[in-house]
Each structure stands twice: as structure tokens, then as C-alpha cells.
């Protein structure tokens, strides 16, 4: 029996959470080994497990993979979540890079100095409203299909929906103006083709399971976990 992927990171979202989402959506079970101290990270560095001396690192299929996007691409390829040809892969990459740009802003928000946080939140909301979500809404509207590319599930859909959940935690009203992205309150009366992307992806059995309490999905970063992560990564 093949060994489950083993994820090396701290017990929080960070740059590993998208990998958790993609593995879970693909139906591939995984284990996790959490770093609790800076010494745990040093040990990984010293034993040669980290090519660039940094995590995330995932042991999968006999490899020790680092770099978040490389790991995501491998998982997507493995589970047929990366399009059927070069053109579809190019679109998936283009959409995923847009997701990553906005995700990075949200990801780093807890590290923002308190006196700058309100301005940073306003900046993120402005980018959500005027740049990123209109672009994804336009894609879905342009072809009228269930998914972003090729009318089939891809890593772009999964990572965008992860981002939608994160953005809603920041501002519950942020996606209200984007009907093809948001959850419809009458979802039970709609056919799959009429549902918004977030509803459609969240209803997939593997994703639905991942969204349940007690899953390997991590909660939003709180002050306690932030301080612990700072100590592990030696962030001032």
C-alpha cells in the first residue's frame, strides 16, 4: 500500500493550506508532522530535507517536494486537475497566479503592524472589488460553464474557492456583488449548473468533508498561533 503524503509545516494555515485543500479535494488522504519549535525547522534544514532551507515540504511518492506552486502542480497533474492540453494549462496557470497574488495579500495581513492594518485591509478590499473578483466573474460569465476552464474541475477552481472562504472571513460582504462566485442562499433548489462556483465546489463530497469540523483544515490565524509561528520561523 502506498504511503500517504506527509506534510511538514506548523499547525496553521500559512503556505501549506492550499496544498491541504488540493489534496483533500482530490481525495488523497495525507498525514502531517507539525513543527513546534525553531529547532524542529533547523532539524529539517540540517538533515538535507529542504532544498531551499524553507517549508512547506511534502513527502509524496518517494520525493521530498518544496516550493508551494511546484507541490500544487504535482498534485494537480497527478489527479487530473490541470487541464487536458497546453492551452487549458496556460489558462489554469493564469487564473491560479491571480488567485496567488490576492492570497498573498491576505496571508501576510496578520504580520502587518497594527497602525497600518486598517489601511492594508482597505487596500485588499479595493483589489478584491476592482481587480480580482471582477476578473473571475467575467471568466465564468463569458462561457457560462460550471468551472473556470474546460467545463471540468481544476486546481484553479479549488484554489479560488479556498480564497473565497478566506476573503469572507476578512469581510463577509466582499463577494456579495459577484453572483457567479458567491453561495446562493437557495442552493437546495438549484441544479448544479445554476449554482455559484463556491457552492458547487463546496458541495463536492471530498470538499464537503474537508469543510466539516474536525478535518485537517486549519482555522484562521489567531494571536497565539501567530506568536508561535513567529518563534518557529524566527520572525521579529
Which labels suit this protein?
Glutaredoxin; Glutathione S-transferase Yfyf (Class Pi), Chain A, domain 2; four-stranded mixed sheet; 4 strands; 236 residues; 2 domains; single chain; alpha+beta; 9 helices
Write the layout of secondary structure elements.
Layout: E1 6-9, H1 17-26, E2 31-34, H2 38-46, E3 57-60, E4 63-66, H3 68-78, H4 86-107, H5 114-143, H6 155-170, H7 197-202, H8 205-210, H9 223-233
Parallel strand pairs: 1-2
Antiparallel strand pairs: 1-3, 3-4
Helix pairs in contact: 1-3, 1-6, 4-5, 4-6
Shape field: globular
Strand order of the largest sheet: 2-1-3-4
Strand content: 5-15%
The CATH architecture of the largest domain is Up-down Bundle
Chain-averaged pLDDT: 92
